[in-house]
Structures are given as structure tokens and as C-alpha cells.
Amino acid sequence: MNYHKSRSVSGRLTFGRLFICSSLITGALLPSFGCSTLPNLKTEHVVMVNRTGNLIDPRGNIGKPEGGKHLLFKPYAELANTDDPKLDKKAVDDYFTKLFTSLEQTRVRNGGTRKRILLYVHGGLNTAQASIERVVEYSARIQEDGTYPIFVNWDSSLTSSYRDHLVLLRQGRRADDWCCQAWKEYGKGYALGSNLAGGVASAVTTPLYFAFDFARGVIRLPVDLYGVYADLLSSHWRSAFTDENIGKDHWPHGNCAVNAKVGMTPRADALLCEVRHPSAEQKPYPLVQGINQRTGWESAWQIARTVATVPVHIGSGLVIDMAGTGSWSSMHRRTTVMFNRDQDLWAPDPHVSPTGGVAQFMTNLREFLEAHGGKSEWEVVLIGHSMGTIVANEMVRQFGHPLRKNPREPLFDEIVFMGAACSLRDYMNTIPHYLEEYKTTRMYHLMLHDQAESTEQSLWGTALPGSLLVWLDGFFTRPDSPLDLVAGRYQNLLRVMHLHEPELRERISVKVFNFGEKAKETSPQTHGDFGEFPFWKDEFWQAKGDSPFLLRRVQ
């Protein structure tokens, strides 16, 4: 067993890499034997839940947890089995006590007046092992910059997600929920009956679910191909149309000509033309649009590779749609059970509090801040990447309200979305209302260049072109209107910019990174690339002065 330094980040493993590299059945139904040792994991920097929303011990899942040995896809021990109300919760209390004792000892950042807590929520397609490796790799670096990181890890691995879809979940509910889940509260006999009924339902329906997945993949293949290729062609058209007009000065100073074409859409033109130089206080630009810096050779190589691999895309598209749609649904469900577990919805107590692991952590965090000076002593930054933004929205809705000691100050001072996979509707129903209610919070959107989204390649171009966000808009989800498209794509977010009240726009920053080999060291190039940069630094979110892209990749 060797520890290998992880370069994994949220979404680093795209659907294409995972589906094509392994057989669908084998990858989904059999465990992997990859193993590593992570002896330096600092558990005071991580809160981790499993697929049912229970808190787990992240130290290891082979032998004794303190040994730090991890096997891919093997379950981790739960800190407490909340299905049994009689079980001693001491392990949970001890875990949080260690975390908050360490948090209390953090220092004020240089130039700051308060201690800073950073909550980071990763996205989909992260194995438990990869998310733990991220904690090992980054927690010390972030602390060196005067920020206390807490990584919110959840089970979003592809294999377990598809396995749940295929075997366990039926219309958003567990198979053992179809007849008598509520009866489990009445004793072991009822629980046994419910489990038996669920086993029968699963055995009968699993072959049907697999057959339906295959049939759907075949039937929808032409639609899937249309979705990704139409996006690819339109991004090339927009890029060719705008690059010549942007010129060297793509952050306009002062007024713009009324008909100046500097952005990707007329709305981008209007918004970019409203941009002014920051004031003496160096406030961030409200909108910075990076440019396509690729050379002609880069573009020609990408086009040639895409054309040459079209036949392969037909096969990969079938596999990606076949398993990816169900996996996305299963992962989406897991973003809710970490707050409100299934048992909470059936609990006989009409006043039951949420028992999901993240809900427990956020409740304890609020109590800690209340007892240690409140918002006058602490600032809280919330960062979500990809599907982590869905979790972040829920954290804002359920736990973002002010503490009792500071009734006018919200819990979250800054909210950062990186390549957001949440829908525009989810975003608009959460963040603008929060900003309107609380005047001190700032919102940052970090995005790839539109052409970077549409041309992203996996496994040497053998998977369908496009990032995860392109696939979500194209065929994983079923958008009923533009508001159901993902919020992390520049062309999508522009659709709702006019819905933000004018006074809110001053506290919403949109930063679109440059694209091309020249920009590789200072701008993320793929959906999973954000974690390769110092995502915890203000300079990464903001765009100050005439050089908004200064920070380089983490070495």
C-alpha cells in the first residue's frame, strides 16, 4: 500500500474517463482494489458523510481507523448509527470536540480583524479516498495563509452512485421504502418485513432498470450527439465572432461605444460596458470576461481530433448516457440526505430535527460561534465546486441565518461558486434572496471560458466533447426552461443577470477565465481544474486592477 500524492479535485474524473476506462458492469457492481495509506490526515479539518448521510470516521477503512489505510469503495465506519436512538453518541461528540478545539486555536489572518473559517464542498465523481487525499494535500497550505479550512466530504463516487440507482433506489426512494418504511419505528419485526419487501422489489426490478438504461441510451444517442456537437459549433462561432472585437483591452475603461461587440452576447456587451476601474479601495470588478488565447494550431488540432474520434463518440455516448443519467440522479439525492435523512421524513416525532451529518455539523458550528464571540470574532467563507454548489445552496437556506449574538449579520460573509452544477432556478431561489436580506455578503462566480466548456476532452478525445456542465445541459438533466440550465456556464448565467436587483449587482462578481495553452498556468482549463489553483485566496475569486489573472497553479 503506497500513499500517492493526489491531484484529484472536484470533478477531476470525468464521466468519460471513468466509463470508458472500465467495463460498466464491473465498475458499477464490483469493488476496486486500489489502496493507499494516509497517515497524516488531520480529522479536525474534515466532516465526512456516507451515501445515507451518516457521519463517518475518515481516518481509514481497513483494520483500525488510526492506521490510516484506505481501500477504494469499501465503506467507512459510521461514527454513530443514528438509526438506533439508544446508541451512545460519544464518538460524534468527541469528533466535534476535537474539531472545534483546534478551530478555537486558529489565528487572525494578516491584515484581518477576525478569524476566517473556510467551508469547502467538493462536487460529484469524487471517491471517498480522493476527497480525503485533498484534505491531506491542502489543509496545511490553507492554514499557512491564515484561514482554517473545513472540508465537507460526501460520497459522490460514480460506481456507488450507479449501483444505488440500479439496485437500491426507486423513484427517489429506497426499495425497502415502497410499502412499510414508516413501520420500522415499531420494532425489529416490522424492520425485517420492510427489508424483505425491499429485497424482493430490488431483485424483480433491477434487470428492468438495466434494460431501460440500455434502451434509453440507444434511443437518445442521436439527441445526445446533437446536444454536444451543437454546443461545440455554437461556441466556435461565438468565439470567432467576438475575439477580433475584444482586442487587447478586454476589460473596458470608462464608457463603451453603444454598438461595441466585446462579449459573447449582447447582454455581455452591455454588462462589460458598464464596468469601471475599481475605486481607490480596490473593489473587485463586477464582471471580467477572459478571452480565447489559443493559437490557430491549437484550434486546428482540437478540430482534427474531434473529427477523427466521431465514430468512437458514438460508443462512448451510449455508455455515458446509459449509466451517467442514473448516477447523476443518485448523486443529486445524496446532496439532500446529508441534511434530511430518509428516517427524518418518517420519524413519529413531529418536531424532529434534521439528523444528516452535515446538518449536525452546521448546528454544532453555529453553537460554537455563538459561544466564542459570534460574527464579531469570526468570518465564514463558503466555497462550492460543481455539485458542491447544490449542497452550498442548502447550507445557505437552512443555516445561513444570523447568530443570536449578531442578529443583523449573516453566517456567510462570502460565497464562492466554481463551475456551479446547480440550476439557475436553484441559484436564483437562494443566493439573490440571501444577498437582499443581508447587505454584507458578497457572491463570486468563477467560470471557464465558454469554448473551454464545450471543447473539453476526456481520454484523448474518445469521450463525448464537453465538460460535465455541457453534458448536464445536453442530456443528463431535462431542462423545462432556460432557468433549469446549470448556473456555472457563462452563457447561462448571463440569462438571469437582469433579474438581480441593481443594488445586488455591486456585490456579485463574475470571473470568466482565459482559455488556451498560453493561459494554462493562470487560468483553469477544464471543469476539474479549479482545485489546481489556490481556491482559498481572495485574489483567485476577485479581479482587481488591470491584471485579474495573477495567481498560478499550485505546485
SS element count, helices: 19
Mean pLDDT: 84
* Count of all domains: 1
Strand order of the largest sheet: 2-5-4-9-10-11-12-8
Distance between the termini: 25 Å
Q: How many strand elements?
A: 12
Task: Tell me the strand percentage band.
Answer: 5-15%
Q: Describe the largest sheet.
A: 8 strands, parallel
Helix content: 40-55%
Question: Care to describe what's here?
Answer:
The protein has 555 residues and is an alpha/beta fold. The protein has one domain (15-101, 117-157, 214-243, 260-541). Helix content is 43%, strand content 10%. The protein is built from 19 helices and twelve strands. It has helices at residues 15-21, 24-29, 90-104, 128-144, 158-168, 188-246, 266-274, 296-308, 310-337, 342-346, 357-371, 388-399, 424-428, 431-437, 450-455, 468-476, 490-493, 502-505, 538-541; strands spanning 35-37, 46-49, 69-71, 115-121, 147-154, 169-170, 173-174, 287-289, 378-385, 414-418, 442-447, 508-512. The chain has an eight-stranded parallel sheet, sandwiched between helices. A two-stranded antiparallel ribbon has the order 1-3. A two-stranded antiparallel ribbon has the order 6-7. Helix 5 (158-168) crosses helix 6. The longest helix is centred in the middle third of the chain and has 59 residues, at 188-246. The chain is globular and about 65 Å long. The two termini are 25 Å apart. The model is unreliable at 1-33, 244-260 and 276-282 (pLDDT under 50).
